[in-house]
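WARN retry 2 of 3 for item q-0093 after timeout on previous attempt; input resubmitted unchanged.
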Amino acid sequence: MGELLDRLEAGTDRFNRIVAGAVAVSIGLFAVLIPLNLLSIRLGFGGWWWLYEAVEYALYFGIFLGAPWVLRLGAHIRVDVFISSLPANSARTLDQLLNIAGAALCLLLFVYGTRSAIAEFADNILPDKDLRIPTGYLMVVFAFSFLMLTVEFLLRMRRVRAEDPAAGTKAGL
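OK item q-0093 returned
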């Protein structure tokens, strides 16, 4: 069982790194394409009608799909002042309880997102935009990201349990 969980953790880590790289590339593309679009408009060639909505979609995908990577790194907003003032065993217990609560909430949002995606596809909902991606796909990304967050919270519980009790808790793990 431990080997299977090790492979799951390695796979999610690899996937998260790929997503983080893709998000970084997309942000870099925004930094280049937006000024080029403005220059094209200024020179009278016209603008790229799809650019701003593509940026909006890419940010949506990047934020949701990048969230598990941010959680893995401990780069999310977290207040460690209270936890660091607790004894090591109490801090670990509180961390585990918070991981359970996070996993439960993310699992609930995964179920909600899955149900919403099914409903969106069944109703064939399209946004009122020029660049029209069916909203069912947006809900699939939403649901998948919360599934990945659930897995990450459960893996965090495993990592906390495997820590050396004498070492105390580590912020971000």
